[in-house]
Design a protein that fits this description.
Elements (H helix, E strand, L loop, with lengths): L1 H5 L6 H6 L2 H37 L9 H4 L3 H12 L8 H12 L1 H5 L18 H7 L12 E8 L4 E7 L9 H15 L7 H28 L7 H7 L9 H19 L10 H5 L4 H33 L10 H21 L6 H11 L5 H17 L4 H16 L6 H5 L27 H7 L2 H21 L4 H25 L6 H11 L8 H14 L4 H16 L10 H10 L12 H13 L7 H15 L4 H17 L36 H5 L5 H11 L12 H4 L3 H7 L16 H8 L7 H12 L10 H8 L1
Antiparallel strand pairs: 1-2
Helix pairs in contact: 3-8, 10-11, 10-12, 12-15, 14-15, 15-16, 15-17, 16-18, 18-22, 22-23, 23-25, 24-25, 25-26, 25-27, 27-29, 28-29, 29-31, 29-33
């Protein structure tokens, strides 16, 4: 156990890889510097010690005469004190005075230091060293003047406030003139105030700085793109510019670096996921090319990770709205930086779904789909839709769906409806369906040698072997994902989607998410498991009957119900009469203005309810819907009228006996009741489609053509037949093609007054032939100057 504790931990190869060469060089330099500094300190102390010994041994004697000249100040005070302490001269004997003078004349007195307190004739002790003597010399009698102290700001520590002082520098009078000359310009530079720039100068300076940064970014990016494996270290240099500290250009430079790095990563990342190396792979010897590739991959992954962390930090700074200590970027600029960061994350989400840290990007993007900022929310939703549309396999879509489902549940279904509307872009057309064990098709396997030997001849075995080899090669050449894996992923994705939808239907029926849920159910209803059909139809009918839904939401409920019944729901013995009744009753609630939100949904519902379920629809029901649709075509805009009349044309082809609505004679008993909400009992067979004659005079030419075509019985051939561009398109396609969204007619309507305007322009048509000849004759005559005589004219008129 002791051996283990004392054993020094050797850093692993992974840790050494993480530590860059620059750090290792810095550590080595610091170690060498410490050794050199300790050595210098030791040498300095030794030098001081030797100098002190020399000074103590050979110190010049200080003369006694005129001490005031060389040592003013403290020396004078010291002498005064000594004079006060000493006895007055008049109290001393003459013999004592003489003895003092004799002692002053002796050489031994002069040669020793006056500051020494030892008697003159004391013998040196053997054990006392020279250094001890030097240490006994008091420091208070130094001739150097006291230095003035400058009081600085105190420092607060755990122990308390520590006062700080500094010695005021004293300029010696013996200093060289050259030193003074060198010091003067430095003082001038320090004291010189910073020149204030005008607004124009400041903008010019900023433009220069920005141009320099742009050139630097461009140089680094082009170097990386030209040879990514060799210049992967320059990614770090480029990423370091995200911390630009110049407040004039900090925001712009950071935005440029974010976008540049995003484009670089999109270009240089490989088409596979980079995994960490195992211990066995690290220990094996490899070629230089392989080692270079490994270094490139590790560098790329690490820099990509740091880049994503930087983007995440920018978004967090904007969310928290906390100003940093550096104060380089203002609070207003945080939103701009965050928008660029979010845009880059969205681009990487779509462009690199196969690469490392894709799940981390999903976790960042999904909460931003519900952000208060509309621009950021729309940006993220569009990115997710784009990812769903281009994801063929379904792996990335599954990851996003999981995070969205968890986020919606965590927020208690209080999120933007746009989040759930992204589900409509999922590329799911089929899923795994539970089948009986007998019906499951076993995957095709190649025959074993024993089976071949039992069942096949030698020639057949030879052909079989060649066929299997070819099939294997074809599979490898295709390199496509297996259908089984794709179906499995799609099934798992759709299960999570339906769980989210059903939770909202159950717990949050008055939530603003309900329209998106109903729209999603209408799209994916044919993929729902048969076990849920009964319960789902009951829930949909209760929602319609509750009256809390808008018209558009109720249409989605009807559409969902019929999608369920038209798919696997054929096996159910359910009569959806209540859904037919609801649609028939609410057709006149369609907006007749420019919005036309529900027309497209109505056209889709009619197609599912009547055309695709033709065998379950009675003639009375079909007649009632055709009559009501013709009445509706009189009120709505032209594109809606075209879609409705196209639906009527399909219904007349699907139910041939409905042509009785074109006759004046009534069949059966009863009178048509247009106000009745039940299509089965409104006696639609006793009415006619008089609305078509009104539509013949419609201002839109396509509406006119459809009306004339239906009056003629919707023929497929002849003069009254429609052109192929109209007859081959569905009702929904015609509705979109002749849309009024651009506030223009398609095709443009010809004006009736165009011919009259042309006639007005021709002035000769208003003139009589005789008058026109007279005008021509007078114009052709040569003008002659004659006197004007009006009396002749008067005389003739009087006669």
């Amino acid at each position: 156990m002791k051996a283990r504790r004392n054993k020094k931990q050797v850093p692993s190869f992974r840790k050494l890889l993480k530590t860059s060469k620059v750090k290792l060089e810095n550590k080595l330099k610091n170690k060498q510097f410490k050794q050199q500094s300790t050595l210098k300190k030791y040498r300095k102390e030794q030098r001081k010690l030797r100098q002190a010994v020399k000074d103590a041994v050979s110190k010049k004697p200080i003369p006694l005469e005129d001490p005031k000249e060389k040592r003013p100040g403290k020396r004078i005070e010291r002498e005064e004190e000594e004079e006060e302490e000493a006895l007055p001269l008049d109290m001393m004997d003459e013999d004592d005075l003489q003895l003092m003078k004799d002692l002053g004349q002796r050489a031994s007195f002069l040669t020793r230091d006056i500051s020494s307190s030892e008697p003159v004739h004391v013998k040196k002790r053997k054990h006392e060293s020279v250094i001890d003597k030097y240490e006994k010399i008091p420091r208070t009698l130094q001739t150097a003047p006291e230095k003035e102290l400058i009081h600085l700001l105190p420092i607060k520590d755990k122990s308390g406030i520590i006062p700080q002082t500094r010695e005021k520098p004293v300029i010696d009078s013996n200093q060289d003139e050259e030193d003074q000359e060198e010091m003067e310009p430095e003082e001038e530079i320090i004291e010189k105030p910073i020149k204030e720039l005008t607004l124009e100068e400041h903008l010019i300076e900023r433009k220069k700085k920005l141009q320099e940064r742009k050139m630097h970014i461009a140089a680094l990016a082009s170097a990386i793109l030209s040879d990514p494996e060799s210049n992967i270290k320059k990614l770090k240099e480029l990423r370091s510019m995200l911390m630009e500290q110049d407040p004039d250009v900090a925001v712009t430079v950071r935005k440029l670096v974010i976008v540049s790095l995003m484009e670089l990563f999109k270009d240089i990342t490989p088409s596979y996921k980079i995994r960490p190396l195992t211990e066995a792979e690290k220990s094996t010897k490899i070629r230089k090319e392989t080692q270079k590739l490994r270094e490139f991959e590790e560098g790329l992954v690490s820099q990509y990770k740091f880049y994503l962390e930087n983007l995440e930090q920018m978004i967090k700074d904007w969310k928290q709205r906390k100003l940093k200590k550096s104060n380089v970027v203002s609070l207003k600029a945080y939103k701009g930086l965050a928008e660029v960061a979010v845009k880059s994350l969205c681009e990487l989400l779509v462009a690199l779904p196969h690469f490392n840290f894709h799940n981390n990007i999903i976790v960042l993007i999904v909460p931003l789909m519900n952000d208060m900022s509309k621009s950021i929310s729309e940006m993220c939703c569009e990115a997710v839709k784009k990812l769903f549309k281009q994801d063929k396999l379904g792996q990335a879509s599954l990851g996003v769906i999981k995070v969205i489902s968890g986020f919606v549940k965590g927020r208690n279904y209080e999120v933007r409806p746009e989040m759930l509307k992204t589900f409509l872009c999922l590329r799911i057309k089929e899923v795994e369906v539970k089948k009986d064990t007998e019906d499951i098709n076993k995957p095709k396997k190649f025959m074993t040698f024993k089976e071949k030997r039992k069942t096949l001849s030698r020639m057949q075995r030879k052909w079989k072997k060649a066929e299997e080899k070819l099939e294997r090669e074809l599979r490898e050449a295709e390199a496509s994902e297996s259908t089984e894996k794709k179906l499995k992923l799609h099934t798992e994705t759709l299960n999570i989607v339906f769980v989210t939808y059903f939770r909202i239907l159950k717990k949050a029926q008055r939530s603003p998410l309900l329209p998106a849920v109903l729209e999603g159910l209408a799209k994916f209803a044919h993929l729902i498991n048969v076990e849920f059909f009964d319960d789902l139809l009951v829930v949909l009918h209760s929602l319609i009957e509750s009256g809390d839904l808008s018209y558009q939401e109720s249409l989605h409920c009807v559409q969902t119900a019929f999608h369920i019944l038209s798919g696997q729901g054929d096996v159910l013995n359910v009569d959806p009469m209540k859904f037919y009744t609801h649609l028939y009753k609410t057709l006149f609630k369609l907006h007749a203005g420019a919005t036309n939100e529900g027309v497209e949904t109505v056209l889709q519902c009619l197609d599912v309810m009547l055309t695709k379920r033709r065998k379950q629809v009675s003639q009375q029901r079909a007649l009632a819907f055709i009559k009501r649709l013709c009445t509706l075509a009189l009120h709505v805009l032209p594109n809606s009228s075209i879609g409705i009349l196209a639906t009527n044309r399909i219904l007349m082809h699907t139910f041939p006996k409905t042509d009785l609505l074109l006759d004046n004679e009534s069949q059966g008993s009863g009178v048509f009741l247009p106000e009745l909400d039940e299509p089965e009992y409104c006696n639609a067979q006793n009415t006619t489609l008089w609305e078509l004659h009104a539509l013949r005079r419609h201002y839109h030419p396509i509406v006119q053509k459809f009306a004339v075509h239906l009056i003629a019985g919707a023929p497929s051939e002849g003069s009254e037949a429609l052109k192929p561009e109209l007859s081959r398109r569905s009702a929904a396609e015609l509705f979109e093609a002749y849309s009024m969204a651009a506030m223009t007619f398609n095709p443009p309507v010809e004006s009736l007054n165009s011919k009259r305007k042309d006639k007005v322009l021709q002035g000769d048509s208003f003139l009589n032939e005789e008058l026109s000849q007279l005008i021509k004759r007078h114009c052709s005559q040569v003008a002659t100057q004659l006197p004007l005589d009006f009396t002749k004219c008067l005389e003739t008129s009087l006669r």
